[in-house]
Amino acid sequence: MSAGPHARHPVQIRHARPVRYVAAASLDEAVALLADPALAPARVVAGGTDLLLEIERGGRPGVATLIDISRAADAAVITVTDGVAHLGAMTTHADVVRHDALVRGALPLAQACWEVGSPQLRNRGTVAGNVVTASPANDTLSPLLALGASVTLRSARGSRTLAVADFVTGFRTTELAADELVAEVSVPLLGPSERGVFCKLGNRSAQAISVVHAAVVVDLGDDGVTVRRARIALGSVAPTVVIVAEAADALVGRPLDATTIGAAATAAAGAVEPIDDVRASAAYRKDVVAVVVARALRTIAAGREGERWPASAPVLSQRRPIPAPPRPGTLLAGADEIDATVDGRPVRAAGAAGATLLDWLRDAVGAKGAKEGCAEGECGACTVRLDGAAVMSCLVPAARADGAEIVTVEGLAAGGFLHPVQEAFVAASAVQCGFCTPGFLVAGAALLEECPAPTTEQIRQGFAGNLCRCTGYTAIEAAIATASGVRR
């Protein structure tokens, strides 16, 4: 980058994108593709919410081929056997949130998945992807460590299983070999005497990267009072998520009362040397560690760990089977065309390999409604529906659209009439500069399909992934309430 007044900031530099794309119909096929030297260097993409951004910003240089498992039929399966939940490689955060057995038996993980990003990101981001990214700020890592989870890795050479604590080796580094993929995440469920909770402190109430997050699992033994075992994991305080044995030692053999909780919180703060970054100072984090751990333990002691679990929380996604890839195993390059249904009309266009869905829609298809605001999945201006799920199109590989059904803001109106959400936005003057409006409209339409009569809280949960830089949320919420009445 050249110096001087016109030099670009590092986040403005667009790095080389993958030039090839191939969709796998199964994990076996994905493993075989990974072993093909003609595709190297290759990278498996599931949700892509971390990987695409890392590639765009130079964090994962040199990736030539994306091997997409998002439509692999055997990758999205969740099974529970003998007290262990087995999450397939494509288990999304939204899948965990709406899985009753996981909410009951792995509450800290479900709570962390609910805290991840926004509905659009939860519809694409996966638990396995969080583990592979290995960022200490990734919310799901602390509950996975506290619950004693493991990962199963597969390659053409065979399979191996590692505890998550051993799989993550450092800041964004893991034991994953170049020819391996994470096939499954296994999570032991809480036993009859175990209680667990996830706590997070962020700088805002939605889409916040953690300042500190903690997952606490406590076994209260036969008497329901004395701590038999404990496991406390802390995130965003070190290069990796850490297990704080000192805090657990302060709990074991003692009743979970105010004195014991205070001792454990103090031990947790004393055991870490937090990092300094743009979100918080090390000194602040050290103080907050004690606060977060104490809060989690008090919640468990009071039996209130599930009290704030959202009832009927919107996920902005229809429950329907994901269609198989129309050309499994077929390599796509930049000049190859793909077929999709966009806003109800068949479309065939090239340029999908190496592009994001947002760029392909705007540049190749001519659907200009979705906007690029942040290019990192935080503003929601690029929201579209992909096979029934609201997603951030700036973080979806464009070739994923092959054989898919996509709805943008331009497809909401039908039969010459505006969608009720569009009419309500006009009536409520819920538009200011208008840049964010397409994303709000698509998310709002998805919300009303899922919740025909949403509460104010559900409206806010549904719009957690959409930011209005003009701060016009009151009118937007009113518009959705009005549209709800019109639809009913």
Architecture overview:
By secondary structure, the protein is of the alpha+beta class. It has 3 domains: 149 residues, Ubiquitin-like (UB roll); 225 residues, Uridine Diphospho-n-acetylenolpyruvylglucosamine Reductase, domain 3; 76 residues, [2Fe-2S]-binding domain (DNA polymerase, domain 1, Orthogonal Bundle). 30% of the residues lie in helices and 19% in strands. The protein is built from 17 helices and 19 strands. A 5-stranded antiparallel beta sheet has the order 4-5-10-6-7. Helix 11 runs antiparallel to helix 12 and helix 14 packs across helix 17. The longest helix is centred in the middle third of the chain and has 20 residues. It is globular.
